[in-house]
């Protein structure tokens, strides 16, 4: 066996002391529940959106809800980043999509109110229809993407789709009744979001989560 060579400046008789390696501090994994930030942000933005559709704000004062809706998008982006850091990709995607909806709605209302997009008056309705149709496509994707989650999640997004469809029909037919119906349906899916938030909050404080139902799509594995 080879004899260790003394370090420079050390006599052969002096014992060689091995220095133990320095251990790096153990990093604790990230934890927590991003829905405790994301769901309240979603709820407050949806309530403000519903109030506009129902007609709580006067006609022509659609921008009154924008401070709430745009602030809600910030909370949703925070929840998205938090979920992504935890590796919860689908949850992060959902929060990011809803944040995108609120932010795009705010930009749409601000842009139309201040003529940022140089649209003729005849093109305003077409722009609104395009906005709603685009988001119906995205929310329908979420319905399909959540079929393997507890049933409350695809039901939630299906009701969101119904609200958007009623809003679209209200725009096409210039019907205030259909628009108000969209607002009431929006409050309906907001109630489901409140249920989900309370479930997460009870679990975070040591209780049990509320029943969320069985997945609609089961038995398919990758």
Number of domains: 1
* Rg measurement, Å: 27 Å
H/E element sequence? HHHHHH
Number of helices: 6
Low-confidence stretches: none
Structural class: mainly alpha
Helix content: 55-70%
Instruction: Count the beta strands.
Output: 0
* Average pLDDT level: 87
Q: Biggest sheet, open or closed, and with what strands and sense?
A: none
Q: Please state the overall shape, judged from the principal axes of the Cα atoms.
A: globular
Residue fraction in strands: under 5%
Give the termini distance in whole angstroms: 53 Å
Folded structure, characterized:
The protein has 222 residues and is mainly α. It has one domain. Helix content is 63%, strand content 0%. It has six helices and no strands. The chain has helices at 35-54, 66-85, 89-113, 121-145, 152-172, 176-204. Helix 1 (35-54) runs antiparallel to helix 6 (176-204). The longest helix has 29 residues, at 176-204. The chain is globular, with a radius of gyration of 27 Å.
Write the layout of secondary structure elements.
Blueprint (H helix, E strand, L loop, with lengths): L34 H20 L11 H20 L3 H25 L7 H25 L6 H21 L3 H29 L18
Helix pairs in contact: 1-2, 1-3, 1-6, 2-3, 3-4, 4-5, 5-6
Quick description:
This protein has 222 residues and is an all-alpha fold.
Identify the notable features of this structure and list them briefly:
globular; 6 helices; 222 residues; mainly alpha; 63% helix
């Amino acid at each position: 066996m080879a004899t260790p060579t003394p370090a420079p400046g050390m006599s052969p008789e002096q014992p060689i002391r091995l220095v133990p390696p320095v251990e790096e501090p153990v990093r604790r994994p990230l934890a927590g529940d991003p829905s405790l930030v994301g769901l309240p942000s979603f709820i407050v933005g949806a309530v403000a959106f519903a109030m506009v559709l129902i007609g709580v704000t006067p006609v022509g004062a659609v921008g009154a809800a924008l401070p709430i809706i745009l602030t809600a998008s910030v909370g949703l982006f925070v929840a998205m980043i938090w979920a992504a850091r935890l590796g919860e990709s689908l949850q992060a995607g959902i929060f990011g999509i809803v944040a995108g909806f609120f932010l795009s709605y705010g930009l749409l209302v601000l842009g139309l109110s201040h003529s940022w997009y140089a649209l003729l008056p005849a093109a305003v309705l077409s722009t609104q229809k395009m906005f709603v149709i685009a988001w119906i496509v995205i929310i329908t994707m979420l319905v399909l993407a959540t079929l393997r989650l507890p049933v409350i999640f695809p039901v939630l997004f299906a009701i969101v789709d119904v609200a958007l469809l009623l809003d679209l029909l209200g725009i096409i037919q210039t019907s205030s009744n259909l628009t108000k119906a969209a607002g009431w349906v929006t409050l309906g899916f907001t109630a489901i979001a409140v249920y989900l938030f309370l479930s997460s909050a009870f679990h975070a404080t040591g209780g049990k989560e509320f029943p969320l139902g069985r997945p609609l799509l089961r038995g398919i594995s990758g």
